[in-house]
Amino acid sequence: MIKESMLTAIGNDELIHEFAFAIIYRCGMYTVTAGKDEYALAQKYEELKKKHEIHYPKTSKIFDIISNSYMNESIQERYDAENEIF
Fold first, then answer.
1. Overall number of domains in the chain
2. Up-side HSE of residue 5: CA atoms within 13 Å toward CB?
3. pLDDT by residue (tens digit) across 36-86?
4. pTM score of the predicted model
5. Residue 56 is part of which domain span?
6. Which of 11, 72, 19 lies closest to 46, judged by CA?
7. How many CA atoms lie within 13 A of 31 on its CB side?
8. Which parts of the chain fold into alpha helices (H)?
């Protein structure tokens, strides 16, 4: 796991985004829940973002990217379920 000190020293935006997407895409296969699981994950990462934003801003940025990604996926999954798009 990358530590905040390493992110501060080398953490340009590209590294931060790559690290965030590595976390997002490690999930693999999952059961379709009409966006409920993605929403819960978005909330989890939003809480982590808020918890770390003062002392660990770059780590907080990673959590923000992850949270936004899961929230967008949740919205899309909900829309698809409501409109029966498969």
1. 1
2. 0
3. 999 999 999 999 999 999 988 888 999 999 999 999 999 999 998 888 865
4. 0.75
5. 4-82
6. 72
7. 3
8. 4-10, 13-24, 36-52, 57-82
